[in-house]
Amino acid sequence: MKIIGQLRSLVTSASEMVISGTSRLAFEVYPQLPGGNAVMAPLALSSAVAMAFLGSRGQTTAEMGRPLFLTEPWARQLGKHVIKLPFQNSLWHHPQHPFQPAYLAALAESFKTTARPLDNPDGSERNPLNAWVESATQKRIPVLFGSGALNDATRLVLVSSVTFSSPWECPFQLKPVTNPSGRVTQDPFMHLKGNLGFMGNELFQLLEAPCQGNAMSVCFMLPRERAGLSRITQGLDAKKFAGWVKEIKVAPVEVSLPRFQVGSKLDLADALRSMGLSRAFTAGQADFSAMSSSPELAMSRVLNQTAVEVTEAGVQASAVTAVVFAATPYVTDRVASNQPDHPFQFFVRDRQSSAILAMGRGEQPHS
Fold it and tell me: Domains plus CATH for the chain?
């Protein structure tokens, strides 16, 4: 029994290290996102990049491992997904480009991937990969790659997707809103009088609204000053955020929180390059010999697309990350939608492990 306990302790420790690395990566990348409304998905990002990491060797492995906080055992542990969310992973390869059987087997074992042909000769957005993403995200992300993005130059696409949907543990309510003309309009806020997780200081309030079952929650970081969000988030890192979360106590509150829908499609290649991953993106220097014998194979894009909707009914979040290996680079594109009324930060998180499924901000006023 003592040995079993020690083994469980080791597994728990490994899981904690994986989550810690994922959180640190998230807070490293997040400040480099574009201004205004933006959202990213740290877990899907870490999972997809870990699949690429397992195919690297030599200096590329060292270069990727340091800023991404990865080692081979931790990368494999990411594939086992230490939180109970419906992850799905896939691998899409050029039909004429051979990949190492051992690499395909490693991803199948750790990430439950199936190798699929990247069959899209006309570059249409109506392709099997987009169809897979649409299904995996329950139709919340119908198109990951636009027309022409997948073509004969694409060698490999590694995809990780996660989706989550839940009502609140404590239901929110809407209040009727009447404009000056007497017309009843939709309330942009949801209201609750009851018990929620709360901590606050002179700069902001942090409210935690648990999802049904209390396993997941949404944390709302609300600045006390209308223009105070940048002051709060400047220098924000995983350790500081974890410390604030530990201070959260259940308290009676009466709150009005924004209802919102925000989505972003981001190419994080430049953000990762700025963290020191230049070799992995440079053909002729990148060493991905564990996945392919081709010397020109290198990463070209890291697409992270996330859609989050928070209403009085609950929260829905879907995210997908695709690491693309291609012969030529592509143009970065991004989209963002909806503007909550008050600038704020939000985190969709697993309460037990502290893993962050999605994190984002709404800065522009509600129109």
Answer: 2-165+264-309 (3.30.497.10)
